[in-house]
Input
Amino acid sequence: MKFLLVATVSLFMMSVMAEDLNAMKKSANEKIDSKISMLQKSKRCVNEATTVAKVNACKSDMRDDMNMKQEMEETKEDLDDAL
Output
């Protein structure tokens, strides 16, 4: 009889420990999911910032090209006038 009591108490304690472990596992998984979500948001922000920076750099290059073209045309006109 004493053996059955010890076995029952042991099984009960194991089930309680298993529930605690499952709760800890669930909490850890939720924290991991939260971190993954934050990293994905950060990645999107970096990608968007990179895209915006590339577009702005392209616009700047186009402005520089247009300015250089205008300067070359003005120089050509000056040379034509000088000749």
Notes: The chain has a mean pLDDT of 88. The first helix runs from residue 2 to 82.
